Amino acid sequence: MVAKVTTALVSSLVFCLSLAIVSYVPMIEHDPNSFYSSFFDLLVLFLIYAGPVYILGGIPSAILIEMLQRRIALTNRVGLYFFNVCAYLIAGVLVTFLLLLINSQGRLLTEAIRENLIFFVLGAIAAVLYYHVLMLLTFLYGRYRTAVKEK
User: What are the TM regions of this chain, as residue ranges (predicted)?
Assistant: First the structure.
């Protein structure tokens, strides 16, 4: 569970840093008499929204995916990787749908999905990022444990 919380925190930081880099407008490109957020303001704003989603949506999704993965019992590493990527993609879209449904107070169902397509894409990207950070941290932790045992 500690690994999943750590993964959620690292993933949300990486995801929000990426969004802030893409959204930031450098000082040279600022229009006069217009307001622009600083890079740090963008980062904090994205973390306020993405952090809780990673913790409240990502961790339970990861637990459910692990339970499903154990039931399927794939032994092929490539098959397991593609299963996990697809499962996290679907989980990201579902968590995004729930978030949009809560934020819109149920009006999402009457709106066209294509109006919110970018949110679904970002949710899928965030979920796949979570999976890859989880794999990286698991690998690093395994190497750390091996190094500690050898001493």
Answer: 44-68, 80-102, 117-141
